[in-house]
Amino acid sequence: MELPRGMFITLEGGEGVGKSTNLKFLIDWLTDRGIDFVQTREPGGTPLAEQLRELLLQKREESVDPTAELMMVFAARAQHLSQVILPALNSGKWVICDRFTDATYAYQGGGRGLDRNLIAQLEQTVQGDLRPDKVLLLDLDPEVGLERAAATGEADRFESEQLEFFHKVRNAYRARASEAPARYAIIDASRPLQQVQQQLREEMEALLP
Ligand code: TMP
To answer: How far is the CA of 156 from the centre of ligand 1 (A)?
Structure first.
């Protein structure tokens, strides 16, 4: 008998939106309900993809070509999908992933200004028809987010970008969400944590069979 495919949920947002805290909340929610799940992240999630993550996040003298950056992100994703995400979903497990392709549309598309059609082509090549069942988008004014993020240690290559970059990232995320409202939940992350998590709980409950 074939198992029903697990739910594929991604958590997205700019810097300092509270991804780590809310990810922990989602993990606790899944655990409390006895749902079999895999927690993972992008870029990363396998040894090779984690090495690509290090290369992507490292600050370096050489300026990084946006297309090279895009290819590295999708190289990591192809590996992650075949080794972790697809096997988990196909065995009926839920997958909760800290960032996925919406981050590519936001950072490489919005932030770096790369052509969305190019991203869409790579998305189709690497993922086929696989898309997250639900994208939980933590939305916050980047000025507030960057202030929060600054308190959590040394900035990586992305975190070192200017404010304008993060406004573009936010706008691209919101534009994606407005194109397919049923698959996205925009969560106003400027509210008190309790309210943010109440909405997360409702979104998760709506996914239960
Ligand atoms: P984070 O997971 O700690 O937020 O760091 C990952 C960084 O990688 C973050 O700054 C966003 C960036 N990123 C991209 O630029 N494109 C992508 O497709 C993904 C998944 C992440």
So the answer is: 10
